[in-house]
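One thing: could you explain this record?
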Amino acid sequence: MENANGTSFYDSTPTPLHIQHFVQDFFGGIDVDPCAEDGNRMKAATYYTAADDGLTHSWGPGSAYVHPPKTDLRDWLLRAAKHGREVGESIVLAPWLADNDYVADHYDAVAFLTRESSLFGVYVEPLVLLYKGKRYHDFIEFATNSRHVARVVRF
């Protein structure tokens, strides 16, 4: 689905408020948002908008929330996994696509969102929250207890 300007609906849709709360509550604050919407809606300590190209910047240590554009999705997913593995932890809001086989090799857990928790009820592909970091047991418990999560899988 595309907007009039040619971008996909997913690329131009902000993170829903309930997902913002989920991520902020789990992290206790977000250190970096490399895919920030204009205005820093996630209230990250450091953020980069599309104009900044967050893939080219250091994300520093700590927590990263990533709601990447669907274009170059694999690059964003691999970078977020590397961040979670090496210097902090990452939560990624992304569509669950048929070619996501590599996700199990790079992430600790995936939380499948309920249909009601999709991007304003109009996004067709299932959405997930991917987690990489040392607190994966905490993430699994937190996600399992969220009414916005249908199921959680540990890799």
About this structure: The beta strands are 32-33, 46-47, 62-66, 88-95, 109-113, 127-132, 149-154. The chain has five helices and seven strands.
